[in-house]
Design a protein that fits this description.
6 strands, alpha/beta, 4-stranded parallel sheet, 15% strand
C-alpha cells in the first residue's frame, strides 16, 4: 500500500495468517499497528481498511513487506524457513517512490531479512537510504510494553 508521494516506508516481514485471511495488513486483533497509527496520525483504527490505508498514504507513509513469499508453519517470524525466502522487488519499488527517505522496520525479522537479502543487491543510491528498526507491533512481541512501543514509533511522525 503506497501513494506516489510517499516519503517513509514501513516494512513488515510477511503477513500472518489472520492478515492473509482478511487480505489486510496487520489484521490480527491484538496487533498494535493500527492503534499506534491512530495515536500518531489520528487515523481511527476502526475505519474500514481501505480508508485507513488511504489516510496513511496521504500522510506520506507507504506500507509493504520485505518478503514476497516464504514458507513457515505458523504466523511467527521465527518459523520462516530461511531457504524459502523470496524478497520483494525493492529496486523497482524504490525507483517508483523516489521520495522515500527512510525505511522503518516493524520488528527485527523485517530488518534482518532486508539487510541480508535486499540491501546487498540494491544499487548504491538505494542501499544508502537510512533505516530504523522499530519494535514489532505483533502480539508475539509482548515483552515490550505498549507505551514503550508507542514512544519508539513516534519516529514515524517526522517526514524525511
Amino acid at each position: 500500500m503506497s501513494g506516489p508521494a510517499a516519503d517513509r516506508l514501513i516494512l513488515g516481514s510477511m503477513p500472518g495468517k489472520a492478515s492473509l485471511a482478511a487480505n489486510q495488513c496487520y489484521a490480527h486483533p491484538r496487533n498494535l499497528f493500527w492503534r499506534i497509527i491512530e495515536t500518531l496520525f489520528g487515523i481511527p483504527a476502526d475505519l474500514p481498511y481501505a480508508e485507513r490505508c488511504q489516510y496513511l498514504a496521504e500522510q506520506g507513509v507507504a506500507l509493504w513487506d520485505v518478503l514476497r513469499a516464504c514458507t513457515r508453519s505458523s504466523s511467527l517470524d521465527s518459523d520462516i524457513v530461511e531457504g524459502s525466502i523470496v524478497a520483494q522487488d525493492f529496486e523497482g519499488f524504490l525507483r517508483a517512490h523516489p521520495r522515500i527517505g527512510v525505511i522503518f522496520f516493524n520488528g527485527a525479522k523485517a530488518e534482518s531479512v532486508y539487510l541480508r537479502h535486499v540491501r546487498p543487491v540494491l544499487p548504491d543510491d538505494l542501499a544508502t537510504i537510512p533505516t530504523v528498526r522499530l519494535p514489532s507491533t505483533s502480539p508475539a512481541n509482548a515483552s515490550i510494553p505498549s507505551p514503550v512501543k508507542l514512544r519508539q514509533w513516534q519516529a514515524m511522525t517526522v517526514p524525511s
